[in-house]
Fold these 3 entries.
Entry 1:
Amino acid sequence: MGDTMSEVERREAIRVGIVGYGNLGRGAELALHDAPDMRIVGIFTRREPEVLSRARRDDPAVADLADETAIYPLDSIRDFESEIDLLLLCGGSRSDLPEQGPALARYFNTVDSFDIHSRIPEYHAAVDAAARAGDNLSIVSVGWDPGLFSLNRLYAEAVLSRGKTYTFWGKGLSQGHSEAVRRVPGVKAGVQYTIPSAEVLERVRAGERPELGTRERHRRECYVVLDQGADAAEVERAIRTMPDYFEGYETEVHFITEEELSAEHSAMPHGGNVIRGGETGLTNNAVIEFSLRLESNPEFTASVLVAYGRAAFRLYERGERGARTVLDIPPALLSPRSPAELMRELL
């Protein structure tokens, strides 16, 4: 395996569109500007492009990029089929991606961060059918969980066939759960933190393999600003009983002011651990742990999307079609570096 670059690697930069410009879309723009082999065609938004342009000029993180990146209305995206190699779908999992994922996979190669674990199989099937119908390649459920943590669960289970795997999230602000909170009728704004049990985490790190229910591993804390006239009790009930997000968890709901939310909950840290305890040979214990500590959950997730976007386009150029997950992707395809360089410096 030599240093000769393939035809795919010699071609011009991968042309990327960003769909949606919340925290994740903003992070995707920043990550793409660090990618040596990719360039942004534009941001596609349901907002008025001029309104978003003005907001970007006032945002210190992207102000320098505000005049470089074109902004288009989302309903014009089909006009760009010949100008875009890949779309990064940066909408939410609860309402945006179930519709946008299959709809856009029919016309473009896509990567998304759909993160409702229990619904990934049905979402994958819908995107797969659309991508095959449109002769495209999509990678779904990309991020750190699902995503990098999924890979680490697989690696740990494959290596320690006798054992038990535990995943802990937090303490951190969950984008998906926060979005779900904000979509509850009566909620003006809000965030949600996932908090692991410190006692259980240390037991597992020490090699114990307890049987744990959902409530024993994590609890959830929500900080909510109510719409004027909203019923606090009804909002709390709706949050606590929400399937796929809060039902089955110990959940605390705190009602605060907009000023408190801005002052105390504007950062977006997160992280977590995948730990598997198992046995080798007859009685030898082993513990595998992978951990993340993130100051910006959306910026990190966006960076993972960009890496898998590179892999998606390479697979498309090889003739692959349909939907994939991170479990299907060869790791070398994530890197802009050549196979020879990866072997020499990372292997």
Entry 2:
Amino acid sequence: MHSRDVRILALLFASAFLVYIDRANLSVGATNIMRDLHLSPYMIGILLSAFFWTYASCQLLGIAGWAADRFNVCWVLAGGFTLWSVATACAGMARSFAFLFAMRLMLGLGESVAYPCYSRILANYFPEHRRGFANATIEAGTKAGPALGALVGGLLMARFGWRPFFIVLGFGTLAWLIPWFLWMPRGQGLSVRQDPSEVPGIREILRHRSAIFSAIGLFCSNYFWFFLLTWIPAYLETERRFAKDKMAVFASLAFFAVAVSATFHGWLSDHLIARGGSPTRVRKSFAGLGLLFSTIILPVAVVRNESIAMVLLLLTCWGYGIFGSNLWAITQTLAGPRAAGKWTSMQNGFGTLSGVVAPWFTGWVVQRTGEFYLAFVVAAAIALAGSAAYVVGIGPIEQVTFRMKQAQPASAD
């Protein structure tokens, strides 16, 4: 891999890493925030889901994808990064539910451009046989972020409280912009304004079965991931009776398992394709089997032995990493460079609606039943449905053929 590509990939990994620390810090500090602001589990569930209101709507409405496809994608990513970092810092200053809710909405607005920008960059600069590893690297960042955030955040919050952690994290991560402005990719593929007749619209994208099922599959897989991300730390503290520092260690190990698994299986899938394997067979197998193995989460809720339960949780996360390694490689191949931003925005927008549902529903279940069992059952069932969507619903993993708009003929003088 060229040194330029290595730098680009390293910076994208770092941004994804920081995105998910910012996104997951509320779940790590949930019990502290509940005590400090006198909030119920249901209200925490609303705060956890608030991020996804703006995050999903900006992508479903095409705003994020339009910005990634219409303007210089590197500057769009930098603008979003700045917005979400400031929102994180300001959240640490919150003295009320309403202000914290507003900052979560602002966080979602900034982060909504992340994945459309990632897809646009990778679709332009990385060929098919290298996209598995490139996407898995970003996926690893999204999982290593919560892992380190859970570990360091849990330990620091236990000692210093949640507010200093939010403030230092938010303002400190702005330093990422310095190397990004120095080394961000440059070239016509990123900055040229495409002829609107050459860019398929959302209606044209949705004409294809693969687009519909990729969105459904992402909704299901995201439900499972957001359940892990937003409630596993609180589950370990409340139902397993882990101390904050012990929770930090095991939650961190779980998220690291996803990151390591995604990186390894991203490399493995590229290796198999480079040796002649069919992208359809390889990518679908990894996605389908990964979500199938993720259903190991169900015994975690019923096994009494703490050690066995934690081993099962790690196996669950390893399975989810198998799926995540090929998720966006599938999308980028189907969409191609011209539609990567819009397709990703549509798919991710619909998929992250589960981020509204999963935290809210889990909070409702815990408040009504006093335990997490039903929430675990639903998460496992939805992961199984996602596996079916990727294996059966999506067609061949190859670029679809779009019907282009007819250019308007020049008027005669």
Entry 3:
Amino acid sequence: MSLTTLPIAKAGDDIIELLPQMANRHGLIAGATGTGKTVTLRVLAEAFSRAGVPVFLADVKGDLSGLGQPGGDNPKVVARAEELGVRLTPAGCPVVFWDLLGKQGHPIRATISEMGPLLLARLLNLNDTQSGVLSIVFKVADDQGLLLLDLKDLRAMLEHVSEQAAALKTSYGNVSAASIGAIQRGLLSLESQGGAQFFGEPALDLDDLIQTGAGGAGVVNILAADQLMQTPALYSTFLLWLLAELFERLPEIGDPDKPKLVFFFDEAHLLFDDAPKALRDQVERVVRLVRSKGVGVYFVSQSPLDIPEDVLGQLGNRVQHALRAFTPKDQKAVKTAAETFRTNPRLNVTDAITALAVGEALISVLDAQGAPTVVQRAMVYPPSSQLAPLDPAARQATIAASPLAGHYEHTIDRESAYERLKGRAAPSEAPAADAPSAAAPHGRATASTEDQLTKAAISIGTSVVRSMGTQVGRSLVRGVLGALFGGNSRRR
């Protein structure tokens, strides 16, 4: 097996290999429940990691934590290796665990300003009128130089705008008490679902997702999503925000020899369910353009019908597991899946899709010229990592040994809209003599050690750059989707 390719399956005597230089042209893993999608995701993640490509994926079932440990002892894995005539080499990947709720991994946070009004409106399930009022609130915060970092900042800003509605009407438009109330109720609901823990500082530094471990293997970033899936709007909006941040902040690099990062979007239908056309159009645009940043996006879903046609057309590498054809909708999904492949005269794709065994798939990848290969019926390789999830103690030990341990665990609460509007801002402390003043935080940090405080100060310095514009403009930044809808672009 060549180190310049990523072998993922075998069709007879033919090895199906993904070309690293084509891996940023995105992909699709589809199939009914129980047909092998998760194992295929695991095998692809292992292959990318071995090639030195960092990976971000969501563990929606809670069964991917074993990626960090050598496997090979599962009877089904051993049987698959024997069936394919391949040598099984047990190996784990370097992993980092993340969790929006902060229980099963390092906390992930974003500021309210980074999320922006468009994605926040989707998260709160606001109608057009309410979304417009939310945009006004963000605009007033921009114009008055008020930082929106966490939920209490946004609540204070909503109260402020509501109180000043009459004075603001001429410059910004009508702000109804009913819309303010609807937004506040949405925030209360979001907080009850654990969403409040996601907003604040230190905000996620994307560089921490793009790391390599021992021997140059790409780090596999695993988001604990089994509990998060109980709030699908938060799950899908977070992943969309993260994809948008990658698009906006990474430099253009064209088509690299291998991706800078591979992003797996599991349960992809949640991204598009009930999404307005304007948002779907912007998702299509981000997917189309993010490949030039060296990011490969792989959607994982039950049916290709879950993915809008304009997005589906950009997914060059395809793995299609079995589909069922019990209903007219199922039959349409089978037909759609069959039509997306390059025809193989020796294979009836439509019949094959409904007859695939578990772990078997129809696969087409991009060749060196970027053209899809003819579809082949193949058996996905067995994974090298541990199939069983880690026990809680082993998981916590991995988190504690992570290079990021202690960096995101301690929240920071500096002066922002809440303190400014409520008149309760804590006095700024003089910066230490050996610390650059630009990194000194306003407000409080709960970290207790000097090392943690230093990390926190660095995080604040980074977040200040990400959250504020020039002193002249004093504009708060927006995520790329907000910018595409006329918001402010990120200034550095």
